[in-house]
Amino acid sequence: MTENQKPQSKLYLGLADQRFLATVVDASLKRGSGLSIALSDATVGISLDKLGDWTITVGLSSRSDQFRQSISSLETLGFFQATENEGNTYMLWTSLLSEDGEARIVAEQTLLQALKALKEHTISPYIS
To answer: Are 46 and 53 in contact (CB under 8 A)?
Structure first.
């Protein structure tokens, strides 16, 4: 690695690749389980319940500079505000409310779009 190259996590490199995300979900989720992804200003969780319904949860810090933009972007994806707790707002999306095809595919696409939206509203540090 040269001086100008920055190490990047596999998750960062793979966010644009839906196949990568599908592989992570396949490897991690079985009925009745969940997966969490920690970001700088948010926590994203996806779970598959025993009945086969998918739920995506996004916890956002209200102290984030991009809080309002993130909420707006998630709402356009079909998320709704579930609760607030100790300075965090939790947004939910569930396949129960979606009528757009196979639940798993829709859940993967929604997760990918949510991660992209959260990444889009992240302010890069001045010094890296």
So the answer is: no
Structural contact between residues 20 and 5, judged by C-beta atoms closer than 8 angstroms: no
Q: Residue 97 gets which letter from DSSP? A: G
- pLDDT tens, position by position, 49-86: 888 899 999 999 888 778 889 999 999 999 999 989 88
Q: Which residue has the tokens 């972007």?
A: 73
Instruction: Give start and end residues of each alpha helix (H) in the chain.
Output: 10-14, 18-28, 67-76, 103-120
Q: Which residue in this structure is represented by tokens 């569930």?
A: 94
Distances (CA, A) of 92 to 1, 37, 76: 40, 15, 12
pTM equals 0.72
SS3 (DSSP) at 62: coil
